[in-house]
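User: Can you predict the 3D structure for this chain?
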Amino acid sequence: MKLIIGKYNEIKNDKPLALAIGNFDGVHLGHQALINQLLTFDSSFQKGVMSFSPHTMQFFTKDQFQTIHTVDDKLNELNKYPLDLVYLVTFDLEFSNLEVKDMIDFLKRINVKKVVVGSDFRFGKKGLGKPRDLANDFELYVVNDVYYEDVLVSSTLIKDYISNGNLEAAKKLLNHEYLISAKVISGNQIGKTIGFPTANLDYDNVLLPPNGVYFVRVHYQNELFYGMANIGYNPTINYSKEKKLEVHIIDFDKSIYDEIIKIEFIKWLRPERKFNSKADLINQLENDKNDIIKLSKTY
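Assistant: Here is the predicted structure, written as structure tokens:
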């Protein structure tokens, strides 16, 4: 898969291209249906996905809009498919103001012949362009809504599931575990002093599940570990005004500051709570660790 990142007017391509277009946040079952349609085309067409950075809604709402995936996680999921190209187009003021005709001209310029979109796809300034506006210039494939057990698959619903802690339901619609890749940042190292060193993660503007302790899988440099992640404010020791995501990785003692790790949220264990003493906190963390070691034998 070749990744092309840049402004729309800098992108070039001279080979016939079949293109699926969308934000692809989460790369869920609905997005996968677009990709599967794309992959049915014969080898005379390059097969590509066009997505945007930032997410189109994130551009308009700034910090108010949270995504399911980081850009890197989205690209990693797309990389699981035999795509020839992925375009990550810079979504800025200039691009957002393209008229419908200008967007069509851009796609024609990069030699798009077939377009695959969902029925709710919108494009161009103020989202005035609809799938039917593409039909005169491209061979158009509009993929119907995807349902899982009579539930319409959408990023919005998946985000609701994550926000409410229903990770199993989110997993079914994503077709993979809910995950976050993030850089390890420096913390106060309080965890180290009580025998539970943690990696503090910069989760950017990615949606988090509810506060609490989670059983997670941790991916670091092609190795798999298990761990316990905490989301919240550290109410017992070192209270934080900002919500934190940190993970204690079991049987791991490397320094990984400024490195990227990926964590998969497997199971919620308990809510975050304030303990009466440091000793009570340590005792609970020991219990959490033992629970995770037991759970790890079944996953």
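The chain has a mean pLDDT of 95. The domain at 178-296 is CATH 2.40.30.30 (Elongation Factor Tu (Ef-tu); domain 3).
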